[in-house]
Design goal:
Elements: H1 2-35, E1 40-43, E2 49-51, E3 56-64, E4 77-83, E5 89-94, E6 96-98, E7 103-108, E8 118-126, E9 131-141, H2 146-173, H3 176-196, H4 203-226, H5 230-233
Helix pairs in contact: 2-3, 3-4
């Protein structure tokens, strides 16, 4: 009986000595996982588009991921990269910290947004020990406001309506000068469309439509002049 009691004590002691290192190792592992979560969180107004050839003011707030404390330029620096739709690197610049607004800022020159297309960006911030980054896409759109573009659609539509009416009138009454005026209006509407564009329509389609209008107007003018007998008019 005594031997059995000693055996139980020895077994308990061995089990305890074996189990304690496992528990301690598990605690160390958990602490290591928690410690590895350090980093920076970048918060900024979510923008999906900027205007063509217009300066853009970027605002970024940077926080410590573990405690949410706002970071400043005392130990943090931020950088932005911008790429066009072919992947070319068009901008790399450092953000400047504004003590009044407690944010990193950068006034991006509108010369970086010359083409109406999709762009991409990467914003990265770093301290001496850790960092954080965000990335995304945005569109460069025409600097003309949407209501103005809608107004242009109406203007082009009115010009085209007069052009078609004068063309019909010239054919019906055999009035060549009505045809000439119609041709000029067709060309004017094409030039206006090509320069200003049309809202929500791909630029290639707009350019093609503008060239068709200009070419058709030029053709009408040539045919109208061919039918005019300048000798008799003199």
């Amino acid at each position: 009986m005594l031997e059995l009691c000693k055996l139980k004590k020895i077994s308990f002691l061995v089990f305890t000595l074996f189990f304690i290192p496992i528990v301690y190792a598990a605690q160390i592992e958990i602490q290591q996982i928690i410690g590895s979560s350090e980093g920076l969180i970048l918060e900024y107004p979510n923008y999906e588009s900027v205007y063509q050839n217009k300066d853009f003011f970027l605002h970024v707030h940077v926080f410590n991921e573990t405690d949410g404390i706002l970071k400043t330029d005392s130990d943090t620096s931020c950088l932005i990269h911008i790429y066009n739709n072919t992947g070319n690197h068009i901008l790399k610049d450092n953000l400047i910290f504004d003590d009044g607004d407690n944010e990193f800022e950068l006034l991006i020159d509108g010369g970086n947004f010359t083409r109406i297309e999709k762009y991409s960006y990467i914003i990265q911030c770093n301290t001496s020990n850790y960092g954080g980054a965000v990335s995304g896409l945005f569109d460069v759109v025409s600097s003309i406001e949407e209501p103005d573009k809608n107004r242009m659609v109406w203007v082009v539509g009115i010009i085209l309506t007069f052009s078609i009416f004068l063309l019909w009138l010239g054919i019906k009454s055999e009035d060549a000068w009505a045809g000439v005026l119609s041709g000029f209006l067709f060309m004017l509407s094409g030039i206006f469309t090509g320069i200003e564009g049309i809202s929500d329509i791909n630029n290639y389609w707009v350019s093609g439509f503008a060239l068709i209008l200009i070419g058709f107007g030029f053709y009408i003018i040539i045919r109208a002049f061919e039918s005019i007998d300048f000798g008799n008019k003199m």
